[in-house]
Amino acid sequence: VHSASCPKVCIVGGGPAGFYTAQHLVKTRPDVQVDIYERLPVPFGLVRFGVAPDHPEVKNVMNTFTQTAQHARCSFHGNVSVGKDVTVQELQEAYHAVVLSYGAEGNRTLGVPGEDLAGVHSAKDFVGWYNGLPTNRDLRPDLRCETAVILGQGNVALDVARILLSPVDILKNTDITQPALDTLAESSVRRVLIVGRRGPLQLACTIKELREMVNLPGTRPEMEASDFECIAKMLKVLPRPRKRLTELLLKVAVETPEETDWVIYSIGYKSLPIDPAVPFDPRKHIIPNTMGRVQKCAGLYCSGWVKRGPTGVIATTMNDSFDTARTLLHDMDEGTLDISTVKPGSAGVTTILEKRGVKPVLFSDWEKIDSEESKRGEARGKPREKLLDVGEMLKVAWT
Ligand code: FAD
Questions:
Q1: Which residues are documented as binding site for NADP(+)?
Q2: Which fold has domain 119-265?
Q3: Of the candidates 386, 358, 398, which has an alpha carbon nearest to the alpha carbon of residue 137?
Q4: pLDDT by residue (tens digit) across 32-52?
Q5: What's the whole-model pTM score?
Q6: Of the residues 10, 42, 51, which should be mutated to test ligand 1's pocket, given the most ligand atoms within 8 Å of the CB?
Q7: Is CATH 3.40.50.720 correct for 8-106+269-397?
Q8: What ipTM did this prediction achieve?
Q9: Per-domain residue ranges of the chain
């Protein structure tokens, strides 16, 4: 099936959107070749660098992604930063279609004075730090304070609160990085205030995360009772998921407190433009698209957070990526996506990268990193001890 004339698609970004788009393409069309280009030497995006260490069950999707990466008509090329090492236009010349699935690596900021002060961090950086994202390795948060404040009430805010308050005994057998574990073991934080700009009915988290928070061992939830006056009366008219969430809040609502030492703002992520050739909506921070087709750019598609904005769980990203794959396959079938010419695919891109001194990390190279991390983790009773440095990752990958 693997022939020079087969349709060739490349995907930019090796997170859930990239892998789910690839999965649907190779499963549905028996002749398509799919290559995934990922900036980091390691795959899986926010499943590795976002999902909380105490949610190992969520990370099981990595097994499905691994199967896709090992599919005969799919390949993974890590350590390739699209927009820098190779342009989107060069990818378009090498492939019949390019799918942009590079997530939302920017940070929404508050735009208020004091945001840059020491002791104020974004949740994105803090999460990246405890999950081993190389760029956040040196964050070194100073947790010698009693009260931490989190601005925002979504699932990421609750992840951060849980990590700050969880007994280290709960975390020590997860894949949290050792430096984060050591810092948390010394932490003086005893109280975390989770602040929202609106009321309990606008809480942005899901019930699973709220339940975990209010049931955390050694922790007592406190809520502003005055926020809950009138709410009980409204329960009947709320849609079922919101009703369950609010009932849980009402059950634990009591009086609250003041004051603060350490602040995390958790008000969301945002996508960034990666290449001037690709249209970008600077207000919504997404690539403008219709059902995954990038507007006014034939042969260019998008999926995941960069397509619809940084909301939704992995399952939402999966459905959205399958939709984009369906759109692309439909365009191939209808002939609106031209697959009649022979394209070089990864052979063409590899030549470009070689000239620029960029050596990709293949999936088999990642497997060496994976087994080194598992080995280091085993010694500490953890599923893995992540490598924190890109240089070290590359060394392990290529030996
Ligand atoms: P990403 O996962 O961000 O993947 C994008 C990939 O593109 C990354 O690997 C990145 O390195 C790569 N990339 C970026 N720029 C380039 C470039 N220029 N060239 C090449 N590659 C590039 N969902 C759940 O279901 N359960 C959870 O418990 C959960 N926890 C979460 C916790 C946090 C802190 C966050 C932020 C999200 C969480 N989610 C969770 C949501 C889930 O992670 C997202 O739905 C999903 O990861 C979005 O997938 P994506 O592929 O669009 O983006």
A1: 153-156, 197-198, 209, 312
A2: FAD/NAD(P)-binding domain (3.50.50)
A3: 386
A4: 999 999 999 999 999 999 999
A5: 0.95
A6: 51
A7: yes
A8: 0.99
A9: 8-106+269-397, 119-265
